[in-house]
Amino acid sequence: MSEQENTPANEAQLSQLRNEIDRIDNEICQLISERARCAQSVADVKKAALEAAGSTDPVVYYRPEREANVLRKAMSMNNGPLDDEEMARLFREIMSACLALEEPTKVAYLGPEGTFTQQAALKHFGHSAVAMPFSAIDEVFREVEAGAVNYGVVPVENSTEGVVNHTLDNFMGSNLQICGEVELRIHQHLLVSDVTKTDSITRIYSHSQSLAQCRKWLDAHYPNAERVAVSSNADAAKRLKGEWNAAAIAGQMAADLYDLKVHAEKIEDQPDNSTRFLIIGTQKVLASGKDKTSVVVAMRNEPGALHDLLQPFHVYGIDLTRVETRPAASGTWNYVFFIDFSGHIEDAIVKKALDEVGAKAADLRVLGSYPEAVL
């Protein structure tokens, strides 16, 4: 520390600022406690209403549309210097902790621990939720359907590699609702262990999608290394401890969990690489004011079927955000369409458009209306 930094005047100024921070911290603690008590009162009112109605239904503590609006309001009130996303993240953790006072939210996700899906689950529900890993997307669906957990988190599409077909296929045989979505920026790192000889790497483990997302970087830096696709990035990270000539591609969470070093960071070919995840549950979600709706439509195999499907959305000015085609289970060369669009199922124009689509379709099922991703 220089003489100038250590002068009595500077020490007095620092002391004054620290006292001000202490005062603010005390006020923040008091307000968070006050908010938590208010959240408990909300839970008590909900319980009393169900009891008065003689209902045996479980109390619904988590409301996706309410949480989305709280986060949006926090971002709109933010005047810096923290950015909007950081402010919303802090509010998310406060809400997660308050909710856990009544009943921690149980969330199933596509595991194992250290995957991007776990990161998405914590981003959406906060660290006070009880997040449980499962080895397959089918298992996540089954856990939610059985009522063993409140919600599930599954990947649905990546901006570089496209749709996750296994997730879409599970919706065909499920009655679960989409209750929300999470968008996660995906940063891939080349990880090594404490026994890795970094100048002798001949094998690189990762999930097939991650290998694809880093293809150009690998071609340039490790053209002769064997690329081994495994079940998940976390599985790739776990394999390194006993292999001196291997590396793994995974995210920071896997590096932290398995005590690995980042040898090269952000090696994804596309700097805006991101993955979208869906929150699946059993409840229908009320409108939040900025929503999406997902539907699956089976059209009759006849000329003009695709035009008939899309025309009502065009007529009513509804923005289609995704259209995917999957083979139908009903027969060869029959297809179903998965469609995401802006708006809520209770919106008048959405109802009109879906009525017209339903009149022309062999089958139409609404998978859910839910708040657009906030963070």
UniProtKB/TrEMBL annotation:
Catalytic activity from the UniProt record: prephenate + H(+) = 3-phenylpyruvate + CO2 + H2O; chorismate = prephenate
Task: List its EC numbers.
Answer: 4.2.1.51, 5.4.99.5
Residue ranges of domain ACT in the record: 294-369
Q: Which organism is it from?
A: Pseudoteredinibacter isoporae
What Pfam families does its record include? ACT (PF01842), CM_2 (PF01817), PDT (PF00800)
Annotated keywords:
Amino-acid biosynthesis, Aromatic amino acid biosynthesis, Cytoplasm, Isomerase, Lyase, Multifunctional enzyme, Phenylalanine biosynthesis
Which cellular compartments is it found in? Cytoplasm
Q: What is this protein called?
A: Bifunctional chorismate mutase/prephenate dehydratase
Q: Which GO terms describe its molecular function?
A: chorismate mutase activity; prephenate dehydratase activity
Q: What region holds the Prephenate dehydratase domain?
A: 106-282
- The UniProt entry's coiled-coil ranges are none
NCBIfam families attached to this UniProt entry: CM_P2, PRK11898.1
Q: Which InterPro entries match?
A: ACT-like_dom_sf (IPR045865), ACT_dom (IPR002912), Chor_mutase/pphenate_deHydtase (IPR008242), Chorismate_II_sf (IPR036263), CM_dom_sf (IPR036979), CM_II_prokaryot (IPR002701), G/b/e-P-prot_chorismate_mutase (IPR010957), Preph_deHydtase (IPR001086)
What's an example Gene Ontology biological process for this entry? chorismate metabolic process
Q: In which pathway does it act?
A: Metabolic intermediate biosynthesis; prephenate biosynthesis; prephenate from chorismate: step 1/1; Amino-acid biosynthesis; L-phenylalanine biosynthesis; phenylpyruvate from prephenate: step 1/1
Annotated site (Essential for prephenate dehydratase activity): T275
UniProt lineage: Bacteria, Pseudomonadati, Pseudomonadota, Gammaproteobacteria, Cellvibrionales
Q: Name one GO cellular component term.
A: cytoplasm
